[in-house]
Amino acid sequence: MHDARTVKAPPSMLRLAAASLAGTAIEFYDFFVYGTAAALVLGPLFFPTFSPVAGTLAAFATFGVGFVARPLGSVLFGHIGDRRGRRPVLVASLLLTGASTVAVGCVPAYDTIGVSAPLLLLVLRFLQGLGLGGEWGGAVLLTVEHAPPGRRGLWSSFPQVGPALGFLLANGVVLGLSATLSDAQFASWGWRVPFWAAGVLALVGLWLRSSLADHWRLVLLTAGALAIGYAIFYAVTTWSLAYATERLGVSRGVMLTCIMAAVVVKGSLTPLVAILGDRYGRRPLCLIGCTASALWMFPLVALLATGQPLLMFLGFLGAMLAFITMFAVIAAYLPELYEPRVRCTGAAVGYNLGGVVGGALTPIVATALVEQSDGRVPWGVGAYLTGVALLSLGCFTLLPETRPVPASAAEPATG
C-alpha cells in the first residue's frame, strides 16, 4: 500500500504545483502589466489636465492602490479558504484579477468619458489587488498541504517562480508591441492589448485549476456557454441604444421602440421554445442558438449601422431569436447538469458568472472598439460578439445532454 501511494503522489503533486505556478504567474502578469502601462501611457491618457510629472505621479498612485488592496484580499480570501477550502480561493482570485485586468484595457480615456475614466481605473486597480492578495496564500497552501513532509520546501517553491514569469511575460508582450507599433499606435490602442491578453491567460489558468475539481470545471463550462446570451442581450438593449443615439443620431424613442418590439417577440416565444427543449433536448437547441448567434453578429451590426428603424428591428429580432433558442431551456438545463448536493450553488454561480463574462464586459468592450473604428459599420463589435458565440459554442459542445428519458423508453414493459 505504501509503495502504491508513493507511485501516485508525484503526478498529483506535479499537477498541483503546475496549477499553482501557472495561476501565480498569470495573476502577477496582470499586476505587472498595469505597472508598465502606468509608467508609459496612463498619465497622459487618464490625467491629461495634470502636468506630465503630476500625471505620471497620479498614474503611479493608482498603481499603489493595488498594493493597499492586497492585504484586504488576503483577509477576505484567507477567510474563505479556511472555511471553504483552498480550491475555491484559487479559482475566485484568478477570476477577479483576470476580469478586472481585461476591464482596464477597455476603459475609455479621459477625453471620452471625463473624470469617470480615472475613477474606473482606480476601482479596477483595487479589484486587481484584491484578487492578487488572495492568490498567494491559496496557491502556497495548496502545495504545502499536499506535499510530502520532506519535500515541502521544494514543492512550495513553484508558486514563488510565478512572479518572475509574470514579470517577464508582461514586459515581453509590451516589448513586442513597442517593436511592431508606432508610438502613436501604441498610445492609441496598443497599450490595451496586454490587458486584453489577460483574459486568454486567465482562461488557461482556470482550465488548469478546474482540473483540480470537477465541480469547478462544470461551473466554468456553463459560464462560458451562457456568455453569448448575456453578450447578445446587453449588446442589443444597452450598447446599441448608446451607439445609435450618439453616433447615428437616431432618436431615443425610435431606438427604444425597435428594441422593445424585438424583446416582446422574444418573450412571447419563450414557452414555445421551451416545449421544443422538452421534446428534442436542451443541448441541441443551445447548439443551434449558438451557431445562429455566430452567423448573425455581423449582419446585426450592419443592419444597426443603417439607422433605419425597420432594418434595425430585423437585426435585433434575429439576435433575440438566437438568444431565446438557448435561454428558453437554460432554467431546466443548468440544474440538471449538477448533482443534487451542489445543484443550487453550481447552477447559480455558473449562471451569474456567465453574466460577468458576457454582460458586464460587452458594453464596455463594444464602446472601446467603436472608439477605435474609423468606418460607419462597427465591424469590430461584430467580430467580438462572434468570438464570444464561438466560445459559448465550444463550451456547449463539451456539456452533456440532460433531458430526462421518458418512462416508457427507460422502462421496457415486462410481461
Structural class computed from helices and strand pairing = mainly alpha
- The string of secondary-structure elements, in order, is HHHHHHHHHHHHHHHHHHH
Mean pLDDT: 80
The total of beta strands comes to: 0
Oligomeric state as shown: single chain
CATH class of the largest domain: Mainly Alpha
From the N-terminal CA to the C-terminal CA, the straight-line distance is 50 Å
The CATH superfamily of the largest domain is known as MFS general substrate transporter like domains
At the fold tier of CATH, the topology name of the largest domain is: Growth Hormone, Chain: A
Shape: flat
Helix content: over 70%
Specify the CATH architecture of the largest domain: Up-down Bundle
Q: pLDDT below 50 for ≥5 consecutive residues: which ranges? A: 1-11, 406-415
Q: Helix tally?
A: 19
Relative strand content? under 5%
> What count of structural domains?
2
**Mind describing the biggest β-sheet?**
none
* Global Rg: 24 Å
